[in-house]
Amino acid sequence: MIAWLLVMLGGLGAQQAAPAPKPRTHSVEIRGMAFEPAVDTVVVGDTIVWVNRDIVPHTATASGHTKWDTGQIRQGQTGRYVATQRGEARYVCSLHPTMHGRLVIR
Amino acid sequence: MSRPTHPLLVAVSLAIATTLQAQNAASPDLSDPEVAHVAVTANSIDIDLAKFAQTRTTNGAVKQFAATMITDHSAVNEQAAALAKKLGVTPTDNAVSQSLEIGAKQARQTLEPLHGKAFDRAYMDREVAYHQAVLDAIDKLLIPTTDNAELKQLLTAVRPAVATHLEHAKQVRSELGATPRTGQ
Q1: CA distances in angstroms from B44 to A37, B11, B51, B69, B71, listed in the order given
Q2: pLDDT at B15 exceeding the cut of 50
Q3: What is the pLDDT of residues A13-37, one digit of tens each?
Q4: B68 touching A, CB under 8 A?
Q5: Could you give the CA distance from residue B160 to residue B163 in angstroms, rounded to a whole number?
Q6: ipTM score
Q7: Per the CB < 8 Å rule, is B71 touching A98?
Q8: pLDDT above 70 covers what percent of chain B?
């Protein structure tokens, strides 16, 4: 009986879905007026952290349909965004519109 | 692309080119305190003109460009002041700084009577020419002539920002369209 229960319980456990992958944190450096990497592939729930290594402030600001904005990131400081929606998320620095970056969210 | 013909472009380019030539002929070297003074002056000039532009323009892209100039050049000047203090250097006035000041005064006089699109075009023309001239000065005069490693490092770190400002200025300027020709 006990053995049968254990088998049943084991079977139930096996039927449960595999746990979702743990959200990861991705770092994007802002250096020399550019996002590095300029393109990053992430998963919904992941956090992207921008680190500003330049003297001048920057932002990472969505330029597509989904609106998000890190606000101004001063030298040595960080800004973050948690990916919420699958798709391609293009972004710019709102202070320097010639700076472009892109997230591929899966 | 055609050569710049706007009087502001020509004036700024000429002023800095002449000063660079004069410097090269008379004194090929600026002292580090003089380089620091040129850097601070170049930033302050652009901040002042951007503040004036913000009171005059109604164009969103021009306003945003001016705001970025104030933010960025202020950040650079904070760093320059902190470095000068750390190194115990007192920035020293010199011919290049004076030339920049004269150019700034002339630019302001040219922009003062202008409004609307005429102002926006002239201001952005000035910003394109100014950032090109400052970029040339960084490459040909300021970095080569600087002895102190930290000051040289600061100038090197600032260069990409000036280059980005130049691209930004060109982008905004191109969106404003060509300056209408007046009867000749």
Answers
A1: 33, 19, 11, 10, 11
A2: yes
A3: 455 667 777 999 999 999 999 999 9
A4: yes
A5: 5
A6: 0.83
A7: no
A8: 83
How is residue A87 written in tokens? 């798709």
* Homologous superfamily in CATH for domain A22-105: Cupredoxins -  blue copper proteins (2.60.40.420)
**In sequence order, which residues have a C-beta less than 8 Å from that of residue B83 and are 6 or more positions away?**
B36, B89, B150, B151, B154
Domain spans, chain A: 22-105
Sign of dihedral through CA atoms B70, B80, B92, B27? Answer: negative
Nearest-CA residue of chain A relative to B163? A33
> Which site among B164, B167, B168 would you substitute to test the A interface, given the most A Cβ atoms closer than 10 Å to its Cβ?
B164
Q: Which residue has the tokens 């929606």?
A: A85
Number of residues in chain B: 184
User: Cα separation of B169 and B78, whole Å?
Assistant: 23
CB B41 within 8 A of CB B1: no
